[in-house]
Design a protein that fits this description.
146 residues, 3 helices
């Protein structure tokens, strides 16, 4: 509504203060100050509550992070222990297997040496001729390679 369209107070159909304008600038200013003071106090209260909430959230996040770190460390230690146990078991099994095959090879070598010894004792002439023949054959093979 434009100023010229408003007319005078007498031209208006209602009686009393204009609802569009405050009755007294002094009363309005006091109401605004009270409202601003209340708003300011409420904002400060809300800000303090927000700070408290953020502090609590940060504390909760730190606690959760610490718990997760402890869980991860515990899980890693348990996994490391399982791996060490598995490696130790396989190492022991490999050692046992090597010992077993070593003992078998040693026993087989001892049997072969014993057999050869018995053969030489029972047939000394044949053994000397066989050794001579093997020597000649080895000499020719090695001489032919030069």
């Amino acid at each position: 509504m434009r100023w010229k369209d408003r007319g005078t107070a007498l031209d208006r159909p209602h009686v009393g203060p204009d609802p569009a304008r405050p009755a007294s600038p002094l009363v309005t200013h006091r109401q605004e100050n009270t409202t601003m003071a209340e708003t300011d106090a409420q904002l400060r209260k809300d800000l303090d509550q927000l700070r408290n909430d953020m502090t609590q959230i940060m504390s909760d996040v730190r606690t959760l992070a610490q718990e997760r770190r402890e869980q991860a460390t515990s899980s890693a230690r348990a996994y490391k222990d399982r791996v060490n146990d598995t490696v130790r078991d396989y190492s022991e099994k490999a050692g046992d297997t090597v010992r077993h095959y070593g003992e078998q090879a040693s026993a087989q070598g001892a049997r072969a040496a014993d057999y050869a010894s018995r053969q030489i004792e029972s047939q000394p002439f044949t053994s000397v001729i066989a050794a001579f023949g093997i020597g000649v054959l080895a000499g020719r093979l090695l001489d032919g390679r030069r």
